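I hope you will forgive my troubling you with a question about protein structure. I set the record out below, with my sincere thanks for your time.
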Amino acid sequence: MKVEIELTGVREAMKVLDPKLVTAASRSAVKKVSDQCRTHISKMIRDEYNIKAKDINKRLKVATRARGDELEAEITGLGRGLPLSAFDARQEGVRTRKGETQYTKKAQRVGWGKAGGVVSVLVKHASGRKPVRTEPKAFLTRFKSGHLAVAQRTGSNRLPIKELLGPGIALLFGSKRIMAAAKDFSKLKFREIFERELKWRSR
């Protein structure tokens, strides 16, 4: 996804000031705005979705930066869907520790056995926690790497299994609400930072 920054005031400044000075101020402003816009997008996503900043920051990048006379930047959401476990996944009656699944007395009492309880996740704050309803049944497991995953078996045997995914950063970033807010933010910030950069260079 690409957020276009409206270079407000640049054309007017070119008419009265050294074009090289104006270009340098514009380039610096675009760089700073793209970084601030990325941070703003991350916050907007977290305000709506139950995602940690570190999970967003690994996948939301300023892919193209302003260089030379190219006064543009591109913010990109990378990768496929986020692991469903990133959305505060929990399995009722079961806790995982150091790669092993341990079943509480409550789980044993109600007869869940090795199937465990129902896995639930909190994806959107406003929607609340919801169960993961899949067939075969979803369960929590920890891979050898230490990664805790919501998974399901791909057949009738214990193995293989596949990890279940939730929405990806590119999809969340590309929503109409967030894109519109990002454009408004970048337009406002560019004018503010460009004028400051121009004033500093004109001294």
